[in-house]
What does this fold into?
Amino acid sequence: MKYMGNKNRISKYILPIILRDRTTEPYVEPFCGGLGTMDKVLTGRRIASDYNKYLIAMWQGLQLDLPRPREIPKELYDRARTEFNNGTNIEFSDFEIGWIGWMASFNGRFFDGGYSGTYKNRNYIDEQIRNTEKQIPLIKDIEFIYSNYLNLKIPPKSIIYCDIPYKNTKQYSISKNFDHEKFYQWCIEKHSEGHKIFISEYEMPDEFECVWEMEITNAMATKNTYKPIEKLFIVK
It folds into this structure.
């Protein structure tokens, strides 16, 4: 699924590092997003959490193969966006709001980037739906949990991968007030509890060590291409 910050393109590089010494440890993603890495971890216990309830409801609904529209005209998109903005479920369930929002929003920005639709004979909604539904067989046994990372109950001795909202970058509305300093402390605490914790970011404080990096071309807008250095960190 297209999702801002999706790690699908770099998963083949970072997952061998993250899972290098894994035997029976649970694999946990507290910021699961579009499952760009999670759907490639095919064995053992998998826990995917996120603080966007519509995202978790969407993945849970896809596990159950709930009915969903395969065509999403702008009028339908606008009605679902109104429900999202009002925090209501008069016409749509959380699953339906999540489905419509991620399938039909520009660049997977969930009602934060405008309606995608069709442009120059390219149907972006159909592409997003087909790509997302390809993930369904890969997510059947994932435990999806709606939770803030601070409140997430993590099994002992887990492998934790955090794809957090990057500092000093444009965020979704739900992550604009993300407290990076609090997150850094949480990582150190989880490390001290015996978990293995990995973090994707551009930069981290001195308490963290970069174990992998690569220049990646990003194009979240058609006329705005840039090449940041993606990095993977661990607690020292």
